[in-house]
Structures are given as C-alpha cells and as structure tokens.
Amino acid sequence: MSDIKAVIRATHPDIVLTGTVAHDHSSTVKSVSEAGTDPTSGQFFYHIGSTDFSRFEAGVRSDHTVGEFERVIKTGGDTAIYRFEYTDEAKLLSPVVSAANGVILEMENDGDAWILTVWMAERTDLAQLWDYANQHDIAIELLRVNEYGSLGRTDAGLTESQRDALLVALDMGYFEEPRNATLSEVAAELDISQPAASGLLRRGTKRLVISSLIDADDDSESLR
User: Domains along the chain?
Assistant: First the structure.
C-alpha cells in the first residue's frame, strides 16, 4: 500500500470554531501548518480573515468549543494569526488522525463545514476517522484521495521539481474535469511564476507519457 493525501469535509456544531464562523460570516479560518495540528500541545494556531475582528472575537467568546484565545499577530488589514485553547465540549479530529498515524496538513472552514487535508500512511487508516465520525454524529464526506506511491517512485526521469509540481497539481484538482484549480493557483502553491509552473507541468507530463508509451530506445531525442 502507498501513503495517501485525502481531502475530507466534516460538519458538526461541536467541531471547534463552528459557532464562531456562524457568528461572523465574513470570517475565514485556516490552520497554521507549522503549529496548528499537534493534538498534544493544547494550543492551536490559525490564520483568521475577517472584515470585523470585533465581531469575530465576539463570536469566539460565545463559542462553547473555545476556552482561551488571543490574537498573536496581525498579518494584514483583514488577516491575523490567533491562538486557541479548546473546551472539553469541542470535538477534535486531529487526535483521531494522529492515533491513526496520520497528520492533518490543513484545515479551513467552508461555511459551517470544515475541509481537512489529511496525510495517512495507509488508505485503510481512514476507517478510524470514519468510525469516530459515525460514533459522534459527525457528517463526513471524502472529497478526494490521492495515492502517491507509484508517482513518487517512478522511473520516468522526472526531476524533483517536475515531480513536486505534478503532485501539487494533482492534489489541488488541476487535472480534474472540470478543473478544481487554475494554473495560477497551482503556481501560487508552488511559490513560482505561472510560466514556470506551466513549463514544469508540461515537461513532467511529457516525460510520463514518453515513459509509459514509447520504448526506451526511442525516447532519448523526445525528452530533449
């Protein structure tokens, strides 16, 4: 089995910060990847966007899932990083994922629902998250799952940059029909220019096609 990255949608009023975003409909919540997914720390950090931070904080104070909170730093006119500590009433998905030897890579709100990007060593480990959701009446939906083993170990002659670009584009839904991500969004995720991203995807795709469909003796000129 290969490791996977799954995108999951979960909905329940006791999932952390659900009441807050219901109070402030302008708010966006996105985990700080460097610090936001450790279930043992007791502290969780999020990038918060809001047109009115006073309204957002009023929502936090009335949210039964949040114990303590503070604004750590304001990163822009309508964005800031907040630290939260949760109450015993909060439903936390990160400990369940960790117990299944996984990691929540990203968590962000979608109205009153939450979109989680989860890495798991085995696809079957997702069953533990589904068991928890069923036991706690959490509505859960698998939006997308990508298995990376075959592409990560390919002998197609991909450069590391080409492989990374293809994996990011695949994860974001760039290759879906219709596309779930634009080329500019893929480029932004890779932190490179749009022409550079286009070149990496084009050359990487060409190498994969040649590796799969053309005999090795015939591909040396085509790869140039």
Answer: 4-146 (no CATH), 149-218 (1.10.10)
